[in-house]
């Protein structure tokens, strides 16, 4: 039987300005049968996305490339098609879900306009018929109130809703092959499962084949039939999913599988109380019509609602919940970066306490070096105009630490050693580093001030499994070395299970359950917690 997609000994190299070759793919070969799901798995930079873009010949639009081998779709070599022919296939016979929906959607067009475009282009539908089909697609992909949402712009939708719109666009012309490039990255576990269930549902309905590109191995085990493991631009191992997970032959595959967090942190008693939150509430007034404004009756949204908890020195508190549950807002309240009601008490040493909620900006500022945060996306939190040395030194300058320039340089070198980066790289800029290296730089910027509390806001959500494991091991080493206290905010329950001493589960701004992490994972009491854990662990 002829496969739907047959990639046969395909190689690709980029040409530089001098005509030199930079090989990226080396004799890639795999097949996808009708109705099959094939997963392409590997670390960042292994060539997964380049392979996907090569199928649709998107790279040649912006790069000088050299290729060899063949990519056969429905028995035809895609590399031999002229431009009008390949454009007729893109979005029609082969569709793609891109990794980041916010960048894949045009911000100046409504989602209705963007859904109608492929229908009018490929299916030759009139505007009215395309509009009706677009409405049906939104409804089919689980968008609430599609009649109103169709006129929304991308920024008015949540991350999960934007991903559903991307799926609706990809399915508009009922393609034979769907390429899904990291379709659930940075989504919380319940939304991840909804997106995966949706893709599988539509796959069965349309008889569609799927090429799944991911670093999420539990996801591969759940939905894929066959898998290819990529490393350094080559496929090092492939076969049926069940066989490969049961008995991987290659050392690299075994290392990938070993990177999936599966341990349970045993609760440590910790030291004295470091932080105490009492009845923290953070509310935002919603934008409404002019009549409500005149009546001074603007509705209020409570992002954090009456939250109380305490944290002891040297321990890790995991804060988990779905997107929009208030996790990051709670962290911003603790740091005094947004307005809130309630008390934040800070105990830097026995017998000394500060009520952070009553301090002015000038009185709070000296304490900020002791309360640091590492943000989710290190690329957007690191200034592109500053070198790594300047970024890490900035906190020392602000807090007048380190003395002379030479002494500060030594402290920067020590911070880079602490995060296992070469101090010789200090003169480079953030764009010259990988995602994992940038996250290490963000951690170095925080720990150089020797904080007592480090808030980690989704620090590994966009990293592949092996880099995640390296960053988590680094955080554990730093905690032991400097007796750090962590608040670990995440939707990755496997990660928090292996790291946290205590757990707080948030839903709609409130803590619905909290306690020792090991006990809570073993026996959750609340229905919401049980549902959250089931969404995370039924794929393991």
Radius of gyration: 25 Å
Shape: globular
How many β strands by DSSP?
20
Number of discrete helical segments = 22
Poorly predicted tracts of residues: none
For the record, give the distance between the C-alpha atoms at the N and C termini, rounded to a whole number. Answer: 33 Å
Mean pLDDT: 87
Main sheet characteristics: 6 strands, mixed
Strand order of the largest sheet: 6-7-8-3-9-10
Proportion of beta-strand residues: 25-35%
Approximate helicity band: 25-40%
Structural class: alpha/beta
Concise summary:
This protein has 540 residues and is an alpha/beta fold. It is 37% helix and 26% strand. 40% of the residues are buried.
Defining key terms:
6-stranded mixed β-sheet; 26% strand; 540 residues; alpha/beta
Describe the structure.
α7 runs parallel beside α8. The strands form 4 sheets. Strands 6-7-8-3-9-10 form a 6-stranded mixed sheet, sandwiched between helices. α8 links the parallel β7 and β8. The protein has 540 residues and is α/β, with parallel strands linked by helices. The chain is built from 22 helices and 20 strands.
């Amino acid at each position: 039987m002829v496969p739907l997609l047959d990639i046969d000994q395909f190689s690709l190299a980029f040409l530089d300005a001098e005509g030199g070759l930079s090989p990226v793919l080396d004799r890639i070969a795999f097949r996808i049968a009708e109705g099959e799901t094939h997963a392409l798995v590997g670390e960042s930079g292994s060539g997964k996305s380049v392979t996907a873009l090569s199928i649709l010949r998107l790279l040649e639009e912006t790069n000088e490339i050299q290729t060899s081998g063949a990519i056969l779709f429905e028995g035809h070599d895609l590399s031999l098609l002229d431009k009008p022919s390949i454009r007729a296939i893109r979005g029609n016979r082969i569709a793609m879900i891109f990794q980041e929906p916010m960048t894949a959607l045009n911000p100046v067009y409504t989602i209705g306009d963007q859904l109608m475009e492929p229908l009018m282009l490929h299916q030759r539908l009139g505007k009215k018929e395309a509009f009706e089909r677009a409405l049906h697609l939104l409804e089919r992909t689980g968008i609430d109130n599609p009649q109103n949402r169709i006129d929304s712009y991308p920024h008015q939708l949540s991350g999960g809703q934007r991903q559903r719109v991307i799926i609706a666009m990809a399915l508009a012309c009922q393609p034979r092959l769907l390429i899904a490039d990291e379709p659930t990255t940075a989504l919380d576990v319940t939304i991840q499962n909804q997106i995966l269930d949706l893709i599988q549902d539509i796959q069965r309905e349309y008889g569609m084949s799927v090429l799944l590109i991911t670093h999420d191995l539990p996801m591969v085990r759940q939905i894929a039939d066959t898998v290819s493991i990529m490393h350094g631009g080559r496929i090092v191992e492939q076969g049926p999913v069940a066989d490969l997970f049961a008995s991987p032959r290659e050392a690299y595959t075994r290392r990938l599988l070993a990177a999936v967090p599966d341990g349970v942190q045993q609760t440590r008693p910790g030291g004295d109380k470091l932080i105490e939150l009492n009845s923290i509430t953070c509310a935002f007034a919603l934008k409404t019509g002019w009549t409500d404004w005149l009546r001074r009756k603007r509705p209020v949204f409570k992002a954090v609602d009456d939250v109380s908890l305490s944290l002891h020195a040297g321990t890790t508190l995991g804060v988990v919940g779905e997107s929009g549950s208030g996790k990051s807002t709670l962290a911003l309240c603790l740091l005094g970066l947004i307005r809130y009601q309630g008390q934040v008490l800070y105990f830097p040493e026995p017998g000394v306490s500060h009520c952070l909620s009553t301090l002015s900006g000038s009185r709070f500022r000296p304490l900020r070096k002791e309360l640091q945060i590492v943000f989710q996306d290190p690329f957007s939190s690191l200034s592109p105009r500053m070198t790594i040395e300047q970024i890490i030194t900035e906190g020392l300058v602000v807090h007048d630490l380190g003395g002379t320039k030479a002494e500060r340089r030594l402290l920067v070198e020590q911070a880079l050693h602490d995060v296992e980066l070469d101090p010789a790289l200090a003169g480079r800029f953030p764009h010259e580093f990988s995602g994992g290296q940038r996250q290490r730089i963000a951690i170095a910027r925080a720990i150089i001030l020797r904080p007592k509390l480090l808030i980690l806001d989704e620090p590994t959500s966009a990293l592949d499994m092996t880099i995640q494991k390296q960053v988590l091991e680094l955080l554990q080493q730093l905690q032991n070395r400097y007796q750090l206290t962590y608040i670990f905010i995440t939707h990755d329950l496997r990660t928090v299970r292996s790291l946290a001493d205590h757990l707080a589960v948030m839903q709609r701004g409130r803590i619905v359950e909290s306690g020792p992490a090991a006990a809570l994972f073993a026996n959750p009491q609340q229905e919401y917690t049980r549902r959250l854990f089931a969404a995370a662990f039924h794929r393991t």
